[in-house]
Design brief:
With 199 residues, the chain is of the alpha/beta class. It has 7 helices and 7 strands, in the order ααβαβαββαβααββ. It is 31% helix and 31% strand. α1 crosses α4 and α3 runs parallel beside α4. It is globular and about 40 Å long.
Length: 199
């Protein structure tokens, strides 16, 4: 999906995603001491804003101007400051070794583009910094609910681990979350990888 698609999708008054942070972001990172954080492909900013509310100095990057405008409104509503960067995260190279935390949440790209984006994300980690990658697992297509329906942009934890050479893997597994809709509760299957840049 290109920039124009996301600008159109985000070009509504209401948030496409809820304003609260992703549950895995909270579970994995709530105990970390705040530092410098980068939210790659931040969309409407819910995760970046939550991190800022916890004392992190946050940069959020996305190529959708409409998404970033909604992210800024959310930050203003929550009384926090975030630095927003309009950039294509496949091409954009954030400052090297500059962040204590980098999060990549539900960034679904063809494998080659995903590897480039993750390489940039990993290079942005300072020594001891944590990288958290979460997205729809390949198995979600047949066994889960929601998410992209193109298998070429889905991934497994093992594939993300292969993309992250030079980092120490702390966790790499499938995780499930409950999705509530008008039809009731269903289950989505995600891939979660947490890695650290060795000190």
């Amino acid at each position: 999906m290109n920039r124009e698609h996301w600008d159109e999708r985000y070009g509504t008054e209401e948030l496409i995603w809820k304003a609260e942070p992703n549950r895995f972001l909270v579970e994995e990172l709530d105990a970390l001491a705040p530092g410098r954080a980068l939210d790659v492909a931040c969309g409407e900013g819910r995760n970046a804003v939550w991190l800022a509310s916890k004392g992190w100095r946050v940069t959020g990057a996305d190529f959708s101007r409409a998404g970033l405008a909604k992210a800024q409104r959310l930050a203003t509503d929550r009384g926090v400051e975030v630095t927003w960067v309009e950039a294509d995260v496949v091409e954009w190279q954030p400052p090297t070794a500059s962040f204590d935390l980098v999060v990549v949440m539900y960034l679904h790209l063809p494998a080659e583009q995903r590897r480039r984006a993750l390489a940039h994300a990993a290079a942005a980690l300072a020594p001891g910094g944590v990288l958290l990658v979460v997205g729809h697992d390949t198995s979600n297509l047949l066994k889960g609910t929601g998410g992209p329906q193109d298998p070429a942009v889905l991934f497994t934890p093992e594939e993300i681990v292969e993309d992250l050479s030079g980092l120490r893997i702390e966790r790499a597994e499938q995780v499930k979350r409950t999705v509530v809709s008008d039809a009731g509760e269903t289950t989505a299957i995600d891939a979660l990888v947490r890695a650290v840049r060795p000190s």
